[in-house]
Hints:
The chain is α+β, with helices and mostly antiparallel strands. It has one domain: Nuclear Transport Factor 2, Chain: A (Roll). It has four helices and six strands, in the order αααββαββββ. The longest helix has 23 residues. It is globular, with a radius of gyration of 23 Å. The termini are far apart.
Amino acid sequence: xxxxxxxxxxxxxxxxxxxxxxxxxxxxxxxxxxxxxxxxxxxxxxxxxxxxxxxxxxxxxxxxxxxxxxxxxxxxxxxxxxxxxxxxxxxxxxxxxxxxxxxxxxxxxxxxxxxxxxxxxxxxxxxxxxxxxxxxxxxxxxxxxxxxxxxxxxxxxxxxxxxxxxxxxxxxxxxxxxxxxxxx
Length: 184
């Protein structure tokens, strides 16, 4: 009986020690491995969805509202738009020439979102653009985004986005929606 009690006591103490060690490694507001809490990750991933669907369905306000008022948007070496006014102008100019039957879809994957010491987060994600009306399906462009996110009074927003189009897309980027140069 004494031996069983010693064994049980040791197991319970070991469990508490392991539990304490795991929780001592957690930083404030993290899930324990340097990751953002699930609710913050989900909110940041929703930024990608609103960005993509805003683009694909021609909803400029949805797209613009993923950025902070002083946000920065860059597309490769094609241009940089700083602040809400320039970003809004960019989006409106890219939507203006669209035909009524515009078909283009974004597909995002492989999110890596990391908190920073200053309460922000950084992220990198792949994108693929395709024409769902083509038969066979045509991938028009691919690339990745490098982002900086900040938590605002209205939730997480993109402070900086640098879109890096891949140099060679299946059609050489000919189907890629046009990127007008910044108005300066």
